[in-house]
Write a structure and sequence with these properties.
about 140 residues; PH-domain like; eight-stranded antiparallel sheet; 4 helices; 8 strands; globular; Arginyl-tRNA synthetase
C-alpha cells in the first residue's frame, strides 16, 4: 500500500498503525539504537512505483522506518512525500549491488554508495526484527 503522506491524514495514520502497529516509543527506539535509516539514493523502482519518482534528472531519495510488525519506506518526490507500507510477512530483501526491497509485486533498489554503507547496522537490525517477528508465527515441526 502506497499513501501520499505529504499532509497529515488521520485515516492513513490509523491504517498504518493497524497494519504495522504503533510506532516504537522513545525508550524502545533508544533501546534499539534508532528506528530510522539515513537518507539513501533510489537507483531503480518497479514500473508501478515509477510515478513516485522525479521525472527530471534530480536525485530521488528514500529512507526506512522500523515498526513492530513491518517497515515504512518513505519516498520524497519534490515537495511531496509518499509512504510504502510493508508488513514483515511480505518483505523480501535482496543484497545485490546495493539493496533491493520487494513486496506486493513492487520493488525499490537503493544505490550502493557512502550513505548506503552507513546504514549497514540498520539493515542488520531490520533483518533481526523481521526474523523475530516471523518466529511468532512459525509452525512447530511435526515429529
Amino acid at each position: 500500500m502506497v499513501y501520499n503522506t505529504t499532509y497529515k491524514n488521520e485515516g492513513v495514520k490509523e491504517l498504518i498503525n493497524d497494519v504495522l502497529g504503533k510506532p516504537f516509543s522513545f525508550f524502545q527506539a533508544l533501546k534499539l539504537g534508532g528506528i530510522g535509516s539515513k537518507r539513501m539514493i533510489i537507483e531503480e523502482t518497479s514500473n508501478n512505483l515509477n510515478n513516485l519518482l522525479n521525472k527530471v534528472s534530480d536525485m530521488n531519495y528514500g529512507n526506512i522506518e522500523l515498526r513492530p510488525n513491518g517497515i515504512l519506506v518513505m519516498i520524497n518526490k519534490g515537495l511531496e512525500n509518499y509512504t510504502w507500507v510493508i508488513p514483515y510477512r511480505q518483505l523480501v530483501i535482496y543484497k545485490t549491488y546495493g539493496l533491493s526491497i520487494h513486496a506486493e509485486g513492487k520493488f525499490i533498489r537503493f544505490k550502493n554508495n557512502k550513505t548506503f554503507k552507513e546504514n549497514t547496522s540498520f539493515f542488520k537490525k531490520l533483518i533481526r526484527l523481521k526474523v523475530k517477528n516471523q518466529e511468532r508465527f512459525s509452525i512447530p515441526a511435526y515429529e
